[in-house]
Each structure stands twice: as structure tokens, then as C-alpha cells.
Amino acid sequence: MRALGNVDDAYDVAQETLAYAVVKLPTLRDHTKFTAWLRQLTLTHCTDYRRRRGTRRLGEPIAQLNEASEEADLTQRLAIRDSLKLLSEPHQDALLMYYVGGWSIPEIAHLLEVPPNTVRSRLMAAKRLIRDDLQTVFPYLNPMKLANPTLSESHMSLIEAAFPGSRIVSVQADPEPWQPFSPRVKLALSDGTQRTVDFRRIDAHRIQLAQALARLGIPGPQVIAGPQPGQSLCLCQVPRGENLSLWALGGTPHRIRLATERAIEGLDRLQACSEGLMDDPIGATLPRRTLLDEVAILTDDERWNADPWLAEAGAERRAWLADPWFADAVARVGAAVVEIDTPLVYTDYMFFFPQGYRIQTGTAPMDDLVGWPGDPHYGENPLVEFVHVFGHFGDPLLGLAMVWVYDCYPFVHTGFVEQVLWRRGVTQREFAPRLALKALQMIARDLPLERPAGEARYWQSLRGWAEQALSWM
């Protein structure tokens, strides 16, 4: 009923599923997994039922098929079916429910009882694995679709300045999820070669900061051209290596373990630049935010609006501040952080998200080394670029709370937070005010005051993290 929306459909699918289960029950080898097996069958039948129930939109043209196109279509369908078999069961569920069943991400999260970010990550990983597999079967298929063929005058002037006489082959909006570069443009150059480039917003001040970080051993974005005076649009090289989160979602235990190590390494390297940046003239221009400042952001409109990310939302922040539970939590956190005198370091909450790091991989899917920490081959998959390098001077651990608060899959399950705390000798009680503070900021930014009647998982999760942290204090 929850999956299909009405009693009649649910009754029909329940009958189909039970009949199928009776026939297939002898094939179930491990009877202790009967509940999970039946649940999987039910979801599969619900997905198939929604697909069969769907109809073509009015006015939508009917495809003109011939024998050749039907054969090609069948070949591709069979290849996709084979690729699906390579996915784990959770990845198959997410992909089929989203694209075949037509459920939204919040609906899938509700049905599978996982956070929405977990569904997004599973979809992202599943699409990547299928794309890589199909590219080996159908190498002639171009994965770069002409998603946004219109570029602005600013885009075109930067291209012409860097590559005179070049021609645009394709334009791809948002080439990677949760990344700061878009669109990605493939160019045919005047010398007959091709080049792929990205656009990114980096103002002149941040270019100076990136240059200072490069001198300190942090390989950041590579700017080819721009920005023009008074603007921030830049033409950049495509990031080196592969997104660490996508690479980790390849699924092997070694990959996930190594990705966790690389993310911790990236964080340590960025924060180790603190002294060098303070000695550099650019360091004097960077904001300094203590934990007391972070608490004040919650209650001060000017400080809240000065943070671009927080200022994007927070429609009910004032309502939360008037709520007795929230006001008491803010007061308790404020009293706790007064006692914390940890020196400020160069940091940003984005430094704690592994998708901001790029790792060097093998040239083919199976070329990555399989090893363990201490293995002599362990250093052969190094970090080659830091996508998010722009930060401020602040508390070294506040951003770490975002991994839990925002359910950073799969690293929320790999012990990433616990590893960082253990290596730095930080106790649960010492981390608690940071976790509570970040959860309160996200509550004020993202949540309505009243618990939603329908999908309330995120609402409950943020409240839960705040209450958990307060109980540790």
C-alpha cells in the first residue's frame, strides 16, 4: 500500500508476489533470509507493476521502428540487463525503483528505510558502474550528451581567449554530482586535436589563495583563463584523477578502506597549511571564526546572512530560536564552547567531504591495486587534486560533524569520523559540542519547526543528532 498508493493495486501486487514466492520458495537456499527475500520480491513486483501501469503522454510521438532499430534496441536492452547483474542488491533496488518504478528519491528512501543521501549515492554509483560496463560493450556511444548547447558570451570569450579558432563539439551540464564545475565543454581545436575543459567560479582573491596553497603542496584547480575584471567565471582544466567518493563506491573493502585513508590524508594536509598561510599575505585576508562565533551565527542575522551557504535557507530560523528546546540547546552549547581553546586552523566543512579529493586510479576498472595499509604498493593510488581548497581559519573539528549530520555515504559507515577523532586523541565528550552545534545550524537552516506529517526522516535525523550530542556533553 505504501509503495503503490491505493488498496486495489496493493492487493493485486500482493497476490502476484505471494503466488510467485510459493513457486520460487524451493530456490531459497538460506531460509533465515526469508523476510529479506520476500521483501525484495515485493519491491520488484511493485516496480514492475508501476512500469506496466505507466502510459505514454498525450502528444508524445510513437517511435518508428524497423527491423534494424528493433535489433539494436534488443541488443542494448540485453546488455543493460547483464550490466544490472553486476550491481549489488541495494544498488539494483535504487536504480530500478527510480528509473523503472518512477518513485522519487524521498519515496525510495522512505520505502527502503534509508536516508535520501544514501539513495542518491547508490544511484550515482549504479549509473557509473553501468556506464563503465556499457562503454566497453558499445564504445561508439558518446557519454557526453549535448545537455546545454547554449553558452553565454562570457563562456565564449574565455574559450576564444584560450583556444582561438576552436569549435564546440559538446556541452555537458553538471558532469559530476556535488562538484563546483559546470558546464564541461569538449572543443575541436584549430590544430585538429580535441580538448575538454570545465567552467568554475573562482574570483581573483581565490586564485591568489589557490596559488599560495599550491606553494604549500596542495594541488588545486588548474585555471586556464579568467576571470575577467569584476567577474569570477574561469576556464579550467578537467580535474585530475577520479572523484574519491565515486571511486570508493566501486565497492571492494580495499577501496573503501583506502579511500578513508586518503580522505583523512587530504584533511590533514589542508589543515597542515595553517601556519604557512598565516605567514603569507593572503592569510591576513581570510576570515577567522571561533566556536563562539559559530554559536553567534545562529542568533545574529548579519552573521547568518554573511555565510552564503547558510543564507540560502533558514526560513524558520527565527521560529526555532523561539522554541524552548532549541533555545536551551543553543545556551548549553554556548556554555560548553567557552571552555574550548583549541587553536584555529585552515578549514572548511567541505574539507571533510571525500568527494572533494581526487585519486589516481588504474587505466582500466580492474587495474587498481589490492592491498592494505603498510603494503609497499599502498602509495600507488595517491591524491592528485583537491577540488575544494577555499576555506577560513576555524575550529579543526567542527566540519567533521557534517559527515554524520549529512549522512555522507559510504563514509558515514566506514568509521571515518571515529578514525579522525581517535588519531587526534579527541574524546566523545570533547567532540559533542561541535556535533551539537553543527546539528543545530542545520536544523535552523533546513527544517520546519513542526515535524512534517509525511516524510520526516531527515527532520528526525537532525533532531536525533542534536539530542545525541547534548546527551554526551
Structure summary:
With 473 residues, the protein is an alpha+beta fold. 50% of the residues lie in helices and 10% in strands. The protein is globular.
Your description of this structure?
By secondary structure, this protein is an alpha+beta fold. It has three domains: 7-137, Winged helix-like DNA-binding domain superfamily/Winged helix DNA-binding domain (Arc Repressor Mutant, subunit A, Orthogonal Bundle), CATH 1.10.10; 153-239, Phosphorylase Kinase, domain 1; 243-472, Aminoglycoside 3'-phosphotransferase, Chain: A, domain 2. Helix content is 50%, strand content 10%. It has 20 helices and eleven strands. The chain has helices at 7-24, 34-53, 67-85, 89-99, 105-112, 116-137, 153-162, 204-215, 244-248, 253-271, 274-279, 291-299, 301-306, 308-311, 317-321, 324-337, 401-405, 416-423, 428-446, 457-472; strands spanning 167-172, 181-188, 194-201, 223-225, 233-237, 242-243, 288-289, 345-347, 357-359, 383-386, 392-394. The strands form three sheets. The chain has a five-stranded antiparallel sheet, with helices on one face. β2 and β3 (194-201) form a beta hairpin. Residues 51-75 and 137-149 have low confidence and may be disordered.
